[in-house]
C-alpha cells in the first residue's frame, strides 16, 4: 500500500513548477511528483493536495503573464497593429489590464 500525506516535503514543492508545464494533465504531474518522492525516499503527496497546488501554481503563472509586455506594446503601436489608446496610455495600465488588440 502506498503511503500519502497532506503535507508535502520542501524538495517536492520545489520540484512541482519544474514538473508542471501548464499543459500536462494534473494526473500526470501527480505521477511524476510521486516518482520524484520515491526517488528521494519521501512520502508521496496526496492527489488532492497536488491538484490544489497545481491549480494555484497555474493561476499565479497566468497572472504573471496576463498581458502583453512593454516591448510587445511598443511594437504593436509602432507597427499600427494596436488601435485605441496610445503607447503611454497602455504603459500606465497594470499589465493584466492591457487589452489584446
Summarize the structure.
Helix content is 55%, strand content 4%. The protein is mainly alpha-helical and 101 residues long.
Characterise this structure:
It is a single chain. This protein is mainly alpha-helical. The protein folds into two domains: 4-64; 66-101, no CATH class. 55% of the residues lie in helices and 4% in strands. The chain contains five helices and two strands. The chain has helices at 10-19, 26-39, 47-64, 70-78, 87-91; strands at 4-5, 44-45. Strands 1-2 form a two-stranded parallel ribbon. Helix 1 (10-19) packs across helix 2 (26-39) and helix 2 crosses helix 3.
Compressed to H and E, one letter per element, the order equals EHHEHHH
- Count of beta strands: 2
Overall body shape: elongated
Number of helices: 5
**How are the strands ordered across the major sheet?**
1-2
Q: In percent terms, what proportion of residues is strand? A: under 5%
Indicate the topology.
Blueprint: E1 4-5, H1 10-19, H2 26-39, E2 44-45, H3 47-64, H4 70-78, H5 87-91
Parallel strand pairs: 1-2
Q: What would the keywords be for this entry?
A:
single chain; 101 residues; mainly alpha; 2 domains; two-stranded parallel sheet; 5 helices; 2 strands; 55% helix; 4% strand
Amino acid at each position: 500500500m502506498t503511503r500519502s500525506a497532506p503535507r508535502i516535503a520542501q524538495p517536492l514543492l520545489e520540484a512541482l513548477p519544474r514538473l508542471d508545464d501548464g499543459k500536462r494533465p494534473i494526473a500526470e504531474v501527480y505521477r511524476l511528483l510521486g516518482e520524484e518522492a520515491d526517488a528521494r525516499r519521501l512520502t508521496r503527496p496526496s492527489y488532492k493536495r497536488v491538484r490544489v497546488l497545481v491549480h494555484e501554481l497555474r493561476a499565479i503563472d497566468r497572472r504573471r503573464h496576463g498581458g502583453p509586455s512593454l516591448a510587445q506594446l511598443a511594437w504593436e503601436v509602432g507597427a499600427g497593429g494596436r488601435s485605441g489608446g496610445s503607447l503611454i496610455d497602455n504603459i500606465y495600465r497594470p499589465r493584466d489590464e492591457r487589452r489584446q488588440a
